[in-house]
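Known limitations

Structure tokens in this collection are predictions and should be treated as such. Users comparing against experimental data should check residue numbering before alignment. To illustrate the layout, the record for Alkaline phosphatase D family protein is reproduced below. The input appears on top and the generated tokens appear beneath it.
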Amino acid sequence: MSDRSLIPAPGRRTVLRGSLLASAAIAVPAAVTAAPAFALSGRPSATWGVQVGDVTASSALVWVRSDRPARMVVETSATESFRRARTWHGPLVDARTDFTGTTPLYGLPAGEQVHYRVTLVDPHDPRRTGRPVHGTFRTAPATRRDGVRFLWSGDIAGQGWGINPDIGGYRVYEEMRRLDPDFFLCSGDNIYADGVLEPSVTLPDGRVWRNITTPEKSKVAETLDEYRGNFRYNLLDDHLRAFNAQVPSVVQWDDHEVRNNWYPGQILDDARYTEKDVDVLAARSMRAFREYFPVPTLLGAPQERRMHRVVRHGPLLDVFVLDMRTFRNANSPGRQSDDTTGILGAEQLSWLKRELSRSRATWKVIAADMPLGLVVPDGATDFEAVAQGDPGAPLGRELQIAELLRHIKHRRITGTVWLTADVHYTSAQHYAPGRAAFKDFAPFWEFVSGPLAAGGFPANALDGTFGPDRVFVRAPDRANVSPMEQPQFFGEVDIDGGSGELTVRLRAQGGTVLFTKVLQPGRTGQ
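Generated tokens:
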């Protein structure tokens, strides 16, 4: 196993002193509700912090948000002193992108710590610059000897539980930061656009939960500005901004980035919404999403933008980021015997099969924003995920998954592991054909972890089509348990550079490891 300390190395710790703590960890940015375009006095400011996305062995994407129009300038260096720094001239950020901007970095050294700082420059007077905001990240290794370690989870500010100053805000992000992972995989529900935050909520035991609130979180999001405000909300938390400045992200989306259980073509019957066309809402959310997260595949021409992608993290790991929301068919009872659209869409399924076949990585993590064998209802008769409660032969969306699993077996693709969040508890499921109605696949594991800052929910029922065995589960016994009443959950994946073993740890906030599973490389199923 990796022998890296759970406490950041001195180089990383030092960068969090001085400018990072002064700028990325301010308790609440100065203008929470004021429109940045009207805050024109002084120099450009980046109090919303910085973040880095989709780091590979040679590239990364740096993000920042300004409080007014500014030119983004990024400097990178191998040292914290920024001697021999390389300068990257980024875009002009203005109201068209809600004053956010991203700068791609290329030609970076593999397997090295990269220190960076972002400076915002007045576009009319280059002598007027803001205070630099610092961050750091590690590039993916070129060889396997260094190993890889990352965290995953999802579900942030959901079910009415937002940033509570009485408990220190999103403290789980500080715990994850101290583990010093190579990156963080957010498995969706980065926001709850349909989740209104009340100033206070009385808990069953009489204690009072208190939320930081903003105008955009006082109603369901419908307009572009309201979606932008939902993405901004989480950046009010100092722990999250400090985490972003140290830990790169790989993000995907799920339903609450738009609204609960949405699918393309849906027309809402919900009195809270004046805009009933979900496709309109989804387009607005996607625009805000690509403004607030550094995702390379969302930056091209409109017809080329997509959430699904492969993030290659050295010879040990490829992360296949799925989009189980954009291309799905309508939620239904899921009993159809022919379903080419399914939950991925035909084109994405073909892409995934092709990229899995091409991958030469030891481990192929399939980052799914929904679980496979857990029954997730949508109302009285419809289903939201893949499974629909019928333990027999594949039907509905299960047909696509059966096709994919068959492909993995017949192509002898080794090292596939499924990771997800979504259901607001943590568990480990082992899938095997000996227990399944559908038998033409190799055994595999699916691990669930979450939420990070949302309500906890009881465990979902299992669907026997693919033979899941729930080896471990930790879930509350009632719905919407607040983060004040139970710890939040996240997972850790550690790939050893020597043996190639992959270790999964399901963690609870507070430092507890709830469950550990070690998987061996080179197996077609285990």
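For this record: Residues 1-40 have pLDDT under 50 and may be disordered. The chain has eight helices and 24 strands. Please report discrepancies through the issue tracker.
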